[in-house]
Amino acid sequence: MSGRTEELAANLASLRSRIDAARAAAGRTDQVTLVAITKTFPAEDVRRLAGLGIEQVGENRHQEAVAKAAALADLGLRWHFVGQLQRNKARAVASYADVVQSLDRESLVTALDRAAAERGRALRVLVQVDLRDHEGDGRGGARPEQVGALADLVAGSAALELAGVMAVAPLGQDPAPAFARLWEVSVRLRRDHPGAGWVSAGMSQDLEAAVAAGATHLRIGSALLGHRPPLR
Ligand SMILES: *Cc1c(COP(=O)(O)O)cnc(C)c1O
Fold first, then answer.
1. What is the pTM of this model?
2. β-pairing, 99-103 with 78-81?
């Protein structure tokens, strides 16, 4: 094993123990799916992670994601898109993504649906929920009260499969109440869409709170890959 592979293996082992401890503390016996968020890290790191058993990876920028997905096409990974999605990129994202976790507005639904139909296989979609308790700037998710309408639109589309909800905990706040709100949104959603049971919540800093609040999918970057240089 290369030094980097050993480092990733050690990170993955501690991450898995953290997740198991969080599941035990929450009394959960169901599985929690790990999605490795590999943004800013090279494709070779993703290949190393695949060698260590990681099957699902996520990216938040289309240019970077499309390049990595192409370079790693032999691995059979599942690609999640977790970043802000522009309508003119929807078709390109649907060419490699298995899951779009960041659907936050109606105008994206038609574009994604058409793109998924063209490639001939279903595209799973999560509605991203804005958990901030004040009116935000419209980025980073639909308001909880908008989720129902957006979900109905996805469910009624031809080639999109409504899988559930996703959220990022608001910065600088206790994540527990935010994740509890997300769980309520999910419960409401499942009344109309019983198959839409995914709850994607929890990152490196707050995965314990997310597991306690019922998260089915964790999106983990730095705890697995290490410190990321600041992006902006
Ligand atoms: C970067 C990112 C993550 C992973 O964050 P870490 O704190 O590095 O675990 C999760 N979700 C989204 C949407 C991200 O952009």
1. 0.96
2. parallel
Atom of ligand 1 nearest to the CA of 228: 8
Does residue 164 have its Cβ closer than 6 Å to ligand 1? no
What are residue 218's DSSP bridge partners? 34
Residue 100: enclosing H or E segment and its boundaries? strand 99-103
For residue 131, what are its two tokens? Answer: 């958990």
Protein residue closest via CA to atom 10 of ligand 1: 219
221 lines ligand 1 (CB under 6 A): yes
- Ligand 1 atom showing the smallest separation from residue 222 Cα: 8
Mean pLDDT by 10 residues, the chain (232 residues): 94 98 98 98 98 98 97 98 94 95 95 92 94 70 96 97 97 94 98 98 98 98 91 56
Q: Whose CA is closest to atom 11 on ligand 1?
A: 219
Question: 137 to each of 60, 140, 143, 168, 170, how far by Cα in Å?
Answer: 19, 8, 11, 15, 13
**Cα 47 to ligand 1 centre (Å):** 19
